[in-house]
Amino acid sequence: MKYAVCINHVPDTAAKITVGSDGKTIDKGGVSYVISPYDEFAIEECLRLKEKNGGEVTVVSLGSDAHKESLRKALAMGVDKAVLLKDDSTRDSFSVARALADCLQEISPDVIFFGKQSVDYDDSAVGLMVAEMLGLPSISVIVKLEIADGKVTAEREVEGGREVVETKLPAVFTAQKGLNEPRYPSLKGIMAAKSKPIEERPASAAPPKVEVLGMQKPPARLAGRIVGTDATAVPELVRLLHEEAKVI
Amino acid sequence: MKILVFAEQRDNKFKKPAFEAVKAARTIVDQIGGEVIALAVGSSVHSIAGTLGGYGAKKVLVVEHARLGLYSSTAYSRIVAEVASAQQVAIVMIPATALGKDLAPRVAVKLDAGVAADCTALRIENGEVIATRPVYAGKALTDVRVTSVVKIFTLRPNVFTAGSGDGEAVPVEHVAVQLSEQDFTSAVKEIKQSSGKIDVAEADIIVTGGRGMKGPEHFPMIEQLAQALDAAVGASRAVVDAGWRPHEEQVGQTGKTVSPSLYIAVGVSGAIQHLAGMSSSKYIVAINKDKDAPIFQVATYGIVADAFEVVPALTAEIKKMLGKS
Ligand SMILES: Cc1cc2nc3c(=O)[nH]c(=O)nc-3n(C[C@H](O)[C@H](O)[C@H](O)COP(=O)(O)OP(=O)(O)OC[C@H]3O[C@@H](n4cnc5c(N)ncnc54)[C@H](O)[C@@H]3O)c2cc1C
Ligand SMILES: Nc1ncnc2c1ncn2[C@@H]1O[C@H](COP(=O)(O)O)[C@@H](O)[C@H]1O
Fold first, then answer.
1. Assembly ipTM
2. pLDDT (0 to 100) of residue B325
3. A/B interface, count of CB pairs below 8 Å
4. Contact: B98, A159; criterion CB under 8 Å
5. Considering only the top CATH level, what class is B205-322?
6. A158 closest CB neighbour out of B99, B140, B310
7. How far does CA A229 lie from the centroid of its chain?
8. How confident is the model over A101-116, as pLDDT tens digits?
9. CATH number for the domain whose boundaries are A2-202
């Protein structure tokens, strides 16, 4: 079996986001970057599938040289091969998907994994676009996956419950928190990753279809009011919610 | 300009975001001309479909088939794309729900369309739709335009107002779509409901408990407050990671992004990842014994006190006001 995982390299979730001087993108100064958290669940799931069924896991990231840091971490977790689709251009989810789909077509994996969403632009789109481009079935936002004899059953999170979805391989999946608990790279893994190559390929060109006109900080919330310092403040709080906010 | 709105249903009842999307589309065509065409897909939706006229649809199309009662990404995306092409619409609007987020990217590829995902506002500038969409879990907002011929916008639930839907109902047209086994290569077999609980992603009021609740055995206190308010129970990641609460309740950057009318945070410190998921709530109440907790910086109303004293009192007071006890 061949497994592929697409990962993005994004600002740490603890990062303070400020708008850069172009007014369209963030100021990268002082921001540390990590594997997008949902992509770690995707890596972990592929590693577990490989441990169970044998095969090879390839990790792919599209972006600048900086993405090598995340690819290196994936190698340290135990992934076999890493590919950087080298690209410094501005892309939207469609054009990222196009380049990833072109690359994945060549690798031709049985299982392709994404995170459910990249925690930078929060599009939740790339994995499903790739599936459509490759003509493959998909199950998104999964918290459980079972594969037996090419038949797939997965559970995906929806409002108020879980959908049980069936499909067959090859297929595309996007990982939700709860699917597994990602491992930390072992010391041995970290050492081994140092000698594993990261293959660089050009990303196929695809013009974006969404243009960012500007970026702003959200309007600051007005300073709130401390209604009290013990339970005697409760009636006043309820009155405010009822009469002032009119939410209850 | 014609706008196609995908009107999501479950169990042959429209979901609120479907009405919100129809109304948002109507607001756009009222400014630049055109019409809103609503599309309902399901096993038996024709009897309810006409109500979409009340929210501003000029025409309602229905695609019905026994197998469309449950979602299939392959079948649904084909239907939406085919209807969009046949109707020659310029814009497709889809609610950014679990289903809509799965559907939109596939429709986009079929229509060679760009997607502005999870929009929280739409406006017209020079005859063109400009969308506002949060990025970095709401730590910043972007204004975007879609440059492809057909444009897709997915709309965040609970942000656009649907109104009362008291406009005139419109006649429903059936659209025949040939479906084969191939269209169901990926299909939902069943939905496991989580015991009738309200989901944080859909709730108008959320009561979230954090590590300040001290242990899972104290969450009934949160549940009772939620019940009094018909609210959903939310959780911080700390309590989800500790195994006190299921992860579908997690609010925040790696949980759910929520925009309810009222968000009550109890024993939640307000870490940046938590704030990212909930700070666009209309009203925020914080109950925390540490006056310096960051949650107070976003709270509309705060009580600096022990949750174990405040929460039962609050539940009782709300029940009293709502005449529930
Ligand atoms: C990659 C990443 C992603 C993350 N994503 C998320 C996310 O999606 N959502 C999320 O929530 N977090 C997320 N976090 C975790 C986040 O950083 C915090 O650790 C977490 O939100 C803290 O949860 P808490 O507020 O419940 O606990 P704490 O920070 O421990 O706060 C507990 C609070 O309870 C108060 N308290 C204690 N006792 C009482 C009492 N008796 N009465 C009243 N108040 C009391 C304390 O004063 C304190 O403020 C993420 C972290 C990382 C690294
Ligand atoms: N630049 C990228 N390189 C590789 N994979 C990516 C990239 N951007 C997004 N992805 C993948 O697509 C998923 C969804 O991203 P998005 O649609 O941007 O929310 C992510 O979780 C990754 O798995």
1. 0.94
2. 64
3. 275
4. yes
5. alpha beta
6. B99
7. 42
8. 999 999 999 999 999 9
9. 3.40.50.620
